[in-house]
Amino acid sequence: MRSRNDDRAAAGGRSGRPFRVNTASGTIARLARRYGCILRYGARNQLIYLRSFIMRNFFLIVILFVMHRLWRVILADGPIVGFTLVQMLWYLAVTEAIELSRGRLFQDIQDDVRTGAVVYTLARPYPYPAFEFARWFGGALVRLVPLLAIGFVSALALVGPLPRFAYGISLALPSIVLGLAIGTLWVLLIGLLAFWSEDVTPFYWIYQKIVFIFGGMFLPIDYFPEWLAAISRVLPTAFQAYWPARLAVAPDAAVAMTTYAGQLVWIAGLAGACALLFAAATKRMHAHGG
User: CB 3.0-4.6 Å disulfide test: which of 24, 129, 134, 266 passes with 236?
Assistant: First the structure.
């Protein structure tokens, strides 16, 4: 398996022949090529172990089977807050696929900080957080595809086809990808806390439980009291799981546009927070002679 240092060296070495572009579009294109290369490296590494990953995540079938038994009883008398049994299980297939495909980026950052390997990345031609995000996001996209396939086949076998599936998934797929980006940024942000905390795993556990509840991962936000639902719908965790899944089972073009806009706002905000946190971490390392 390629090491992360190999990936960084290869990504840096493929920056291409030197050229000068003074326009904003040229700078954006250069950055897109650079981080696109890193993203492809992350995706390629995941493809090597894709078969093992698929076998490990067949427990998604078990999760959906258990949820089917539970919601079949709850929804025995008909839909609640607009969700039928068919919609509920397909909704859970989407939220579970997003959560399981994300990966634990924080552990790599934590290890880099503990071993001091992060110091060697400061001279690279790309910021450390941006490299790690691109690498892990590329891998997450590869993992997402089989998880969605497993979830959809399981839901189809348990409750039958989802009405307006083609339209719903066409609206939901961009939102699913953006939701996965939000989740990856959250885990990156947690990993950067390793510069101050020896073990950031408890922070990840807290974040994970927040996604479970306020992200609507197991229970749609529509089931919450109205005051709590109103707050939860605008949180980044909702744009990570709830809104992508809701678009899949209750497609609406106007809601989709609002969802995409909200996700892009949260992506920008979380990316900015990661940049500020890493800048503070860099100053901390320099202050301690690291």
Answer: 266
Map out the domains of the chain as residue ranges: 4-12+20-287
Looking at residues 56-82, what average pLDDT do you find? 88
Rounded Cα distance, 131 and 12, in Å = 10
Q: Exposed e or buried b for every residue in 191-211, given b needs 16+ CB within 10 A?
A: bbbbbeeeebeebbeebbeeb
Token digits of residue 235:
């949180």
The number of CA neighbours under 13 Å toward the Cβ of 240 is 32
This prediction has a pTM of 0.81
User: 32-48 pLDDT, tens per residue?
Assistant: 666 566 566 555 665 56
Is the CB of residue 125 less than 8 Å from the CB of residue 163? no
Query: Which residue from 16, 11, 13 is spatially nearest to 39, judged by alpha carbons?
Result: 11
Give one DSSP letter per residue of the chain, joined into a string. ---HHHHHHHHHHTS-S-----SHHHHHHHHHHHHHHHHHHHHHHHHHTHHHHHHHTTHHHHHHHHHHHHHHHHTTTS-BTTB-HHHHHHHHHHHHHHHHHS--HHHHHHHHHHHTGGGGGTTSSS-HHHHHHHHHHHHHHHHHHHHHHHHHHHHHHHH-PPTTHHHHHHHHHHHHHHHHHHHHHHHHHHHHGGGT-S--HHHHHHHHHHHHHHT-SSS-GGGS-HHHHHHHTTSHHIIIIIHHHHHHHS--HHHHHHHHHHHHHHHHHHHHHHHHHHHHHHHHHHHTT-
Q: Which amino acid is at 283?
A: K
133 pLDDT higher than 50: yes
